[in-house]
User: Fold this.
Amino acid sequence: MKAGAARDPLTIAATAIAFVTLFAATFPLFVTTITAFNATNETVFPPNGWSLRWFWNIVAQPELVEAAAFSLVLAVISSAISISLGVVSAVALTRKKFPGRDLIDAFLMSPLLVPQVILGLSFLVFFVRIGSKQPFLNLLLLHVVLTFPYALRVIRSSLIRMNPKLEEAAVGLGASSLKSFFLVTFPQMRPSLFVAIFFCFVVSFDNFTASAFLTVSGATLPVQIYFNIESSLDPTISAISALLIVSSAFFVIVADRVVGVEKIV
Amino acid sequence: MKAKLGVLLLLLPALGLIAGFLIALTSVLVMSVMDSSGALSLESYRSFLGDERNLTILLQSIWIALYVTVICLLLGYPIAIAMSRSSRTVASLITLALAIQFFSIYVVKMYGWMLILGNNGVINRMLLGSGIVSAPVKLMYNELGVAIGLTAAALPLMVFPINAVLQTISLRYEEAALGLGAGRLRALLSITLPLSVPGILSGVILTFVFCFAAYLTPGLLGGGFFKMIGNVIYEQAVARFNYSFAAAAAVITLLISLIAIVGVNKASQVLAGGRQ
Assistant:
């Protein structure tokens, strides 16, 4: 059925526009990766000679390595908190009927409506007022707020699609409701948990705009890269960017194999 | 009753978290109506709106967000059509390319555009090398560079919601129109396009708000020569500790975003009403 539709001239034209646009949109990622292999300190494409020295140079810049470790830890912990909160809240929102449920749902999703600069400024002003000078904890709170709505949305929609009768059947057969949740519902949630982990991790690790308000010194990797770009354009930035491009492409392809790419877009 | 209490207990941590976020958001509102001594005052709004430079930046932020949204719609709609209608292999190739672009690190994407658009970038080296120009063409550190960067960053925000709606629209409606003698373009424009309006609206809102409140893209590709409202908020808050002024600018930004969201929804209702 789809194959027949593909032959009509409009779809062909749309596909042509899609290919040209996506080529232009992904070309900078390709160029960045290639410029990481430059032989001299000129970040140019095509490279004027080949070397791996800029990749080794990442290790010689402790601020990049520290920022990468910081961002990784931040992304792992904030994702873990958001997903635990997401599971618990999604169960409450889908399994029980109570007045004001849609309102609470909208309330919990509200951080997504606020532009990042305003989120960042809010937390900056808030932490200044309460005198909190804990960069990691401040960023952790911000990142949980940023990632939680994604976790909730993904997990909730998978719970809605599930048949509650299965869990009821387990209870009817004598399982406690907790036991039936872990034996019946939880296994069915696994694909959506995978998607939620993917989203939370990317949203946290990638976040620049809101985080920049809380890290003047450049604690997270995107903020550190931004400062490095502003101060110089040596190919070390291309090298760390190349590593990031290759790893995010790798994770997208893994996600495509595990749950299908249409689940994450 | 016991079950309801249980629900509340389950929701309590998340409610606390988001309440904390709303308190933080409110503190911006409070900060915006305070002067340096902490007294109630509209001084920050007065000094923001009284300075012509700020108004220019605000207006050019709205303008660039508007036309980038239109460009994203013109490029994004055909992409969504291609995703939902071409053969399985082609569709998943397009989706995968878009996902890889979308999920790469934002700052890295914009750095990539700097390598393309800079004076020593890919385009200028090609132009200079082939002798078409004798001096580099200025493609970034101006409005053009910021517009290109924003279009690239926001495109998936337009495509994904439109694609999600198109996937649910049966091709049979269009086939019926074709059977009744409509041309392909007419069938697309009069059947599928109106049905996909909800997806277009979410895409337009997401894209506009993202572009209007952008900070990273104008920061790198504008390089201080083309500023947007996000840059003003960041500079005032982080570099000058002028929280009250930054807060006033943020409240104005939030208000304009809300007006845009409400306006787009209202416009769609009028459009829907006009068709019936």
Q: What stands out?
A: Chain A is about 75% helix and 0% strand. The CA atoms of residues 130 and 186 of chain A lie 39 Å apart.
